[in-house]
Amino acid sequence: MYKFIIEYVFSNLKLMKKKEFNYAVDNNANPSSNYEKEREVLLKEIINLKLPNHQISTLSISRTEITNILYYDKIYKKILDKPGVIMEFGVQYGGALSTLIKLRGIYEPYNYTRDIIGFDTFEGFTNKLSSDEKKLKWKKGDYGVVKNFEKILEKFLNLEESNSPLNWMKKFKLIKGDASKTIEKFFKDYPHTVIGMAIFDMDVYYPTKKVLEIIKPRLFKGSVLVFDELNHKSFPGETLAVMESIGLNNLRFNSFHGHNGGCWAIVE
Q1: Chain centroid to CA 45
Q2: Residue 238 belongs to domain spanning
Q3: What is the CATH number for 223?
Q4: Which of 94, 118, 133, 241 makes the best surface tag, with the fewest CB within 10 Å?
């Protein structure tokens, strides 16, 4: 399945270029480095060698990808003695959701109330962009994914759940659409919902602020809020949304060494 996902994405690279998805942000990467290009070439080579999937994943995983796993591992431990679901707003290709499902299988394999729910348009940004975001050249469709990828992601996450206890119970959901709208319907459909962790990776102002305002009654003292672009000059909207909906001085933020931009706070 891992091999299939990689081949699926590679086969859609031309489509991605045609649609001109914009993923460009300022970073500290060495502009002369060919690391990603060389890694892509080597990854294709080892796939062609038909190595076992676990050997491919272990060999090809990068330092930054391991950092992300350690980051979510640290955060996941903050909710182990707390109730509630995990919600991620801004799923894209589902790396965080897949990691969270694995961590749930490790730390609390029999907690069938710990649903993990991902919200995303799967078509990139909507046209609700602030003037600051437009000045930064963000536009509708940026951060989109290849067509119908959410269907592949659904299969992949089902596979992950099948490898854990209580695998006959589906404990994740993918909700397609504008999260600032679909979250209200979700709460109507599942009125019992309490939020143990909410992850914000929508990058832009409007949906981040709207969702924060809507979920506030579902948070408790001890809920964990995770932000992916706080204090990031390419995504000022996330900081502004937190300032206006909750207030920066009402939260005690924590960061993880080696993970730029990401941080979390426990509601007090």
Answers
A1: 28
A2: 67-266
A3: 3.40.50.150
A4: 133
